[in-house]
């Protein structure tokens, strides 16, 4: 079936594109959701009259895409999931989980634009998630998958390191205070000795 896209559709085309799709896809999804309209002379003329507006929106989307790509490429996501001792996950990481993790960092992305190879993410580790932005623009977000046990161990190690650093700083401060007190005492001692002969002379 020949249709005209009324909006951008991932892996299919952009607003205003004329594409041919399977009848079932058009009837069951694209047409009912108004993501597309049937291709005919009337609809083609309507889109032709809106060409300038559509092009303007495309320019804006490209600019937004470039800005979003820069932001996403610098983003690191941490997802904590239940896992066994070997690091094997009890389940897998989904695009919904990635979408929620991005939202927590103030980045709103449609779930259908996030590609997670769930069959590949079955273990804790570091992965790359593909986010479709606009046209042929993609971003690769760094994803760190950790188990709940790993997080507990990391937090315990961080707390221990912090306590040791604090104890060391306190010990150094104490040693410095003692050194300053000793130096002050050493300066006062000769002054006291100089006063004693003067007193004897009287």
What keywords describe this structure?
alpha+beta; three-stranded antiparallel beta sheet; 5 helices; 7 strands
Topology, please?
Elements: E1 2-5, E2 18-20, H1 23-30, E3 36-38, H2 41-49, H3 51-73, E4 76-81, H4 95-104, E5 114-115, E6 125-132, E7 138-147, H5 148-201
Parallel strand pairs: 4-7
Antiparallel strand pairs: 1-2, 1-3, 5-6, 6-7
Summary of the model, kept short:
The chain has five helices and seven strands, in the order ββαβααβαβββα.
Describe this structure in words.
This protein is of the alpha+beta class and 202 residues long. The protein has five helices and seven strands. It has helices at residues 23-30, 41-49, 51-73, 95-104, 148-201, and strands spanning 2-5, 18-20, 36-38, 76-81, 114-115, 125-132, 138-147. The chain has a four-stranded mixed β-sheet. A three-stranded antiparallel β-sheet has the order 2-1-3, with helices on one face. The longest helix has 54 residues, at 148-201. The protein is elongated, with a radius of gyration of 34 Å. The mean pLDDT is 83.
